[in-house]
Every structure is written in structure tokens, then in C-alpha cells.
Specification:
Rossmann fold, Sulfotransferase family protein, single chain, alpha/beta
Length: 292
């Protein structure tokens, strides 16, 4: 009986670092009957375009067939298949350009992924404290989407803070797949990325393989405070998107996170009453799960 383990994100939860660990162990895992579906295996496939169209309400009528056909070769070849691709929940990144959070579409994502055709499906959701999540989302938009506004202005214009909740998304997946089939892992400062990855691998059922990995290399780093400021200036001056991204990438390389520290938004930008709501949201989302 083939088991599919889905890790659809959320984005900005060290997914790139986790996928790097899986990638470097791909052949070792394949030899032990574990197949991987990583971003490079899915992003150039027509299935992802069909999935995202359906996710946003304009997909093909046969999306269930498209989904089953994509996963079928993996499920036929391996006893266990792990699919880690945050684009499956890409709109979880809050912005008016791609929706006021996308988390409100978790029920749609869960329903679409239920058509994978596996005899048994498990889901591992990775989440992050909202303040860190919003900070990382903002710096991602500065780096990749030419955002030039200060954090506070971006936050007030782009984010519906009250909708940035994890527990409704977790509940949607648990309703679709069952409570026991869905686990939640929190990326937080305690334990760091190494602790988070270890917990994720445990939930993937890979701890018995004693995989070796080094997380000292930073993958997809958020710009530091200095780089954020300079990237915003470049984004407002350079009109060519490709040139702007090249300049932004060069700035990030020259102002690394280790030297200047991660970008931290100005204090008091998140109302205190919302911080209490977020804390309660974590408790609900992580119920029954072990945070990293």
C-alpha cells in the first residue's frame, strides 16, 4: 500500500532548507523505497498550472483526473512518496495582489489534494509565528516582487491582519483528511532551523534512516535590515524587473543576514490585541502536534 505524505507549505517556513536536505538524500531515500516530489519535479509540469487555476477558481473540469495522473507514476514506483511544494499553498502569503491571505482557500487546497489517488495520505503543515511570517513575507516581496514601500505602509495597505490565522487552515485539512492524518510543525526561534528540519523529518517517517545534513548554509535568506532599505531604493528607481532582481540579489549577497541581523519591523506595528489572538491561534493549530 503506497503512502503519500503531502507537505504543501506554508511558504516562508524554511521550505527551501528542508527541500535541500531531501534533495541531497534523494537517491539514498529512493534506494529505501521513498520517492520525492520537490519543486523541480512539479513546477515545469502542466499539472501545477491546472492545480493553481482550480485553486483560484478557474481550473479545468477534470482537475481530479489531472491530479491523480500526476501522482500515479510515483505511487506505483515507491512505497512512500513525499511531496514538498509550498506553491500548492502559495497564496498563503498575504497580499492584495494574490488575495488577502489565501489562508481562506485552505479548504480548496485540501479538497484538490485529496484527488491524488494514494491509498493512504498524510499531511504535514508547517507554520510560523505571524510576526515572523509577515516580516519574511514582506522581505520576500521586496526581493522578488519589487516592493518599494516601508514595512508599515505595506502592512497597512496589503494585509488583512485578522485573516492571518493558521488554525482555520489546519482545520480545513483535518476535515478533509482526518485529524490523525494531519500534523503541524511550528518554525520558531527555539530549536532553530536544524530543530525544525529534524521534526519535519520525524513526521515524514525518515528519522530511522539517520540522514546526514548540514543546515549551516542559508537557503533563500531574507534580506537584512540594510539590504531591505537598499533594495527598496533600487526597486523604486529601476523599472526593468530582471535588472532590479539582479541588483537585489547582489545586495543580499553583500549584506548577509549573519553580519547585520535579520530584518525586524518597527515595534508596535501589530496591535497587542491581535498578538493575543495569534497566540490562541497557535495553541489551536498545534493541538496534538510537537513544535520544532
Amino acid at each position: 500500500m503506497a503512502t503519500l505524505i503531502m507537505h504543501p507549505g506554508a511558504p516562508k517556513t524554511a521550505t527551501t532548507a528542508l527541500q535541500h536536505v531531501l534533495r541531497v538524500n534523494r537517491w539514498r531515500l529512493a534506494w529505501r523505497g521513498v520517492g520525492l516530489i520537490l519543486p523541480e519535479d512539479i513546477r515545469d509540469h502542466s499539472f501545477l498550472g491546472d492545480y493553481l487555476a482550480a485553486y483560484r477558481g478557474s481550473g479545468p473540469s477534470d482537475i481530479s483526473q489531472c491530479t491523480a495522473e500526476f501522482f500515479a507514476p510515483y505511487l506505483a514506483k515507491y512505497r512512500t512518496v513525499i511531496c514538498s511544494e509550498e506553491t500548492l499553498c502559495h497564496d498563503f502569503m498575504p497580499s492584495r495582489k494574490i488575495g488577502l491571505g489565501g489562508i481562506d482557500r485552505a479548504d480548496t487546497a485540501a479538497r484538490l489534494l485529496s484527488h491524488c489517488g494514494a491509498e493512504q495520505t498524510k499531511v504535514v503543515l508547517s507554520i510560523r509565528p505571524q510576526v515572523d511570517f509577515l516580516t519574511s513575507t514582506y522581505t520576500h516581496f521586496v526581493h522578488r516582487r519589487r516592493e518599494s514601500r516601508p514595512f508599515s505602509e505595506w502592512l497597512s495597505h496589503e494585509v488583512d491582519l485578522g485573516s492571518v490565522l493558521w488554525s482555520p487552515a489546519v482545520a480545513a485539512f483535518r476535515q478533509q483528511f482526518g485529524v490523525e492524518a494531519v500534523n503541524v510543525v511550528l518554525l520558531a526561534d527555539k530549536g532553530g532551523v536544524a530543530g525544525y528540519i529534524k521534526t519535519m523529518l520525524d513526521h515524514f517517517g525518515l528519522s530511522r534512516f539517520k540522514l546526514k545534513y548540514d543546515v549551516s548554509e542559508i537557503h533563500n535568506p531574507s534580506p537584512s535590515a540594510r539590504a531591505v532599505q537598499l533594495c527598496r531604493i533600487m526597486n523604486s528607481q529601476i523599472r526593468n524587473p530582471e535588472k532590479s532582481e539582479r541588483v537585489n540579489s547582489a545586495l543580499i549577497e553583500n549584506f548577509p543576514v549573519e553580519e547585520f541581523g535579520k530584518f525586524v519591523p518597527a515595534a508596535g506595528k501589530i496591535p497587542k490585541d491581535l498578538l493575543l489572538v495569534y497566540a490562541a491561534d497557535h495553541a489551536a493549530a498545534l493541538s496534538g502536534a510537537v513544535p520544532a
